[in-house]
Every structure is written in C-alpha cells, then in structure tokens.
Amino acid sequence: MNYGNLFIITAPSGTGKSSLIKALLNSDSSISISISHTTRKPRSSEKNGQEYHFITIDEFKKMCNDNVFLEHAEVHGNFYGTSKYFIDKKLETGQDVITEIDWQGSQQIKLQYPDSIRIFILPPSFEEIRKRMIQRAQDTQETINKRLLAAYKEVKYAKDCEYLVINKDFDKALSDLRHIIKATKLRYKTQAIKNLELFTKLGVTNNDINDSIYK
Asked: Mind listing the pLDDT tens digit for each residue in 47-104?
C-alpha cells in the first residue's frame, strides 16, 4: 500500500507563489504538481500543458458534466478546475502532489481529502503585490486593480490553513516550504506505510496503521 501527501498551496495573485513552487519542484523530483484546466487566455510566457491546460468554455462545461474535476470555480471571470484522476493516481503510487489553487478550491479539496496540508503564502505587504504585478507586465491596470481587491478578501482565509509562509525573502520562503514538505513526510501514517516491513518487525499491526490513516 502506498500513500502520497497532498499539498494545497494558496495565495493572492502577485505573491510569488508560482515562482516558489517552480523552484521547489526543480529541487525535489518526488513531488508532482497538478496542472489545472482554465478558460482564461494564456499569458505571453505561458505554454499549454505547462502552467495550465488552456481550454474553451464549452470544453470546460463538458468536463464538468463528465465529473472530471475534483473541484472547479470561477475566479476573476474565468473558470478553473482540478483533475481528480491525476491526483488520485499520483497519491496511489506514493508520490506527493501539489495543487496551486485559490481559496475556494482549497476548501473544496480539503473536504474530500481531509488529511491534505494547506499552505498559504503571503507577501510582506499589499504594496509589494502591486509592484510585482506592474513589474511582470502581464496584466492591464484594470486587471491589476481587480486582483488587488481580491487579494484583500483572500488574505482572511489564511487562518484556515495549517501553515503560513511569508514571501518577503525568496530563499527564506523556499526554505520554509521545503521544511513543511519534509515534516509532512515524517508524519506517523506516512512513515508507517513506506516502512511497513520495519513496523511489522516492531509489532505494529496493519490495524494500528489503518487506524492512524482513517481516524
């Protein structure tokens, strides 16, 4: 029996979330990222199947009807969805998975995967968010204003997460993320399943392990 960990990373736009996740994945091959489907248009630096699966609204609606998505939501006028099949397959093989998602999706996934770990990333200030959005030059001023307004609302959901990372210094924030991942891998249930032979020799029964998983 294998048992991977599911990490839900949430943050307002402009906090550096995507850059942190990319750096984390580059340094740890044992983690996969769930690539969401979205109806929004790709930015100039984005490639289909890399940052997102970019699809039409009609395609999105069909996938909803076919129950493809673990969760889906409308954010800033666009639709986003997470593939349940992808996540389950990775977890079943013992691989850890990261979902990069908004607070609405985070709540939906947590209900279905109560053992998942939620991480909220904050910027040092809202002014820093504004600067980062302007510097990346990917959004209109109107879009930036909308995202800033949304950020004020989203921050209040940080209290629902198990961990909070403040991205004031990139290297420090990345180190914090790595420590969270490492600590999660050392939880009793994860260690018991991945070291089943050792636990059996120590007199730990399958019932003991199952109780720790499903309680």
From this structure: 898 889 999 999 999 999 999 998 888 887 899 999 898 899 889 888 999 998 888 8
- pTM given for the model: 0.79
13 in a labelled binding site: yes
Identify the DSSP state of 35: -
Tell me how crowded residue 87 is: count the other CB atoms within 10 A of its CB: 21
- How is 184-213 classified by DSSP, letter by letter? HHTSHHHHHHHTHHHHHHTT--HHHHHHHH
49 is an annotated ligand-binding site residue: no
Kindly give the pairing relationship between strand 96-100 and strand 37-38.
unpaired
> Distance between CA atoms of 109 and 21, rounded to whole angstroms?
19
Q: Strands, E, within 44-170: which ranges?
A: 53-54, 69-75, 78-83, 96-100, 117-122, 163-166
Do 98 and 32 form a contact (C-beta atoms < 8 A)?
yes
17 is in an annotated binding site: yes
3-state SS assignment for residue 34:
strand
Residue 32 known to bind ligand: no
The answer to whether the annotation marks 116 as part of a ligand binding site is: no
Sorted by where each starts, the structural domains of the chain and their CATH numbers stand as: 6-34+96-214 (3.40.50.300)
- d(CA 111, CA 115) in angstroms, rounded, equals 9
Comparing 1 with 6, the larger pLDDT belongs to: 6
Kindly report the number of other CB atoms within 10 A of residue 33's CB atom: 19
